[in-house]
Amino acid sequence: MYLISSCLAGVRCRYDGSHNRVEEIVEFMKERPCITACPEVLGGLDTPRVPCEIVNAEGDKRVLARDGSDCTENFTEGARRTLELCRLNGVTKAVLKKRSPSCGFGLIYDGTFSGTVAEGSGFTAGLLYENGIKIYNEDNWKELLND
Predict the structure, then answer these.
(1) What pLDDT, on a 0 to 100 scale, did the predictor assign at position 146?
(2) What is the distance between the alpha carbons of residues 91 and 81, in angstroms, rounded to a whole number?
(3) What's the structural domain count of the chain?
(4) Chunked in runs of 10, what are the mean pLDDT values of the chain (147 residues)?
(5) Contact, 4 vs 133, CB < 8 A?
(6) pLDDT of residue 57
(7) Cβ neighbours around 39 below 10 Å, total
(8) Cα torsion through 43, 41, 28, 117, rounded to 10
(9) Which residues span the domain enclosing 111?
(10) 123-130 and 72-89 are packed helices; what angle lies between their axes, rounded to 10 degrees?
(11) Dist. CA 58–CA 108, nearest whole Å
């Protein structure tokens, strides 16, 4: 079973109310058992919403919205609920949206809202990885066919 970020499947759940639909991923989903999830929505955030990025303040990993509000609890809860969905459905591999503060894996936006990326992983991607789920993104997802 595979987990796919809802936005990659065409669900309008991005912070700006749009999606990141990837047609090849949608076709993949028709042929294999998949579930979709948007951790940010599962964590209680609205669509649209103020953009958020991860900041590391004094060693404390937080998620702040561009307006300064702290959304860490929403991102933590969304990650927890996404992991629960994965466990309930036997998910072993996930295709997640790169650079997202929830789904980014390896590289995320750096917390300055400047479009700059830095090493790190989003709250959900990190939690899934720690629990044995292999993570891919919209650029390298076809590698999961060989794993």
Answers:
(1) 86
(2) 13
(3) 1
(4) 98 97 98 97 98 85 96 98 98 97 95 94 97 97 90
(5) no
(6) 65
(7) 33
(8) -80
(9) 2-145
(10) 40
(11) 18
